[in-house]
Amino acid sequence: MTAAARVWLFDLDNTLHDASPHIFPHIHRSMREYIERLLGVDAAEAARIRERYWTRYGTTLAGLMRHHGVDPHHFLAETHRFEDLPRMVVFDRALGTMLARLPGRKFVFSNAPTRYATAVLDIMGMRHRFDGVWTIERLRFEQKPSLAGFRRLLSRERLRPAQCVMVEDSAANLKSARRLGMKTVLIAREPRVPAWVDLRLQSVLDLPRHLGKL
């Protein structure tokens, strides 16, 4: 395969930017409070429910939809409110240079809602670097690691799995990508690498220097 024929599928949070310092704590707190209100439980029980659904289904929302009939649009709107999102987005400005150097088409493939994902990309000045942005609404709430979400993206963009490289901080999501026949890149500091991961990098910025390994 020529370099230009390769297609890159990038996760957003903790792949293209660092959501851990500010954004994830805010979202996790908002989700916990939503569950408290919804189910009438205390903070500790709501936190356990949030974590259990995330571990089992890939997102807290999936569990709430499945077991409690939650309206996904309401949930996403309530849990992704930010008073000052630009201050919360942590990223390296070298990301733009890296993406420009990377041959092939590029898509964002995220379980995040559209309004949030596009806002983050605009804050970073990166939206124009991508050929498309696939978010949980476009996936019809068949979020990663569900194979249905992957297949919807592939079908709509007319892509073959063998063309694609999934770049992601979640090993579970990469397992689905590999099952479909994609190459996989794990962004993580931990040295342990699952068998379905082709390449582990500490930073997405290192990607162009390791293309020969893919």
TrEMBL record:
The keyword Ion transport does not apply. GO terms for molecular function: hydrolase activity. It comes from the Bacteria. The keyword Plastid does not apply. Gene3D superfamilies: 1.10.150.450, HAD superfamily/HAD-like. Keywords: Hydrolase. Pfam families: Hydrolase. InterPro entries: HAD-like_sf (IPR036412), HAD-SF_hydro_IA (IPR006439), HAD_sf (IPR023214), Pyr-5-nucltdase (IPR010237). PANTHER family: HALOACID DEHALOGENASE-LIKE HYDROLASE. This is Putative hydrolase of the HAD superfamily. It comes from Sulfurisoma sediminicola. The lineage of its organism: Bacteria, Pseudomonadati, Pseudomonadota, Betaproteobacteria, Nitrosomonadales.
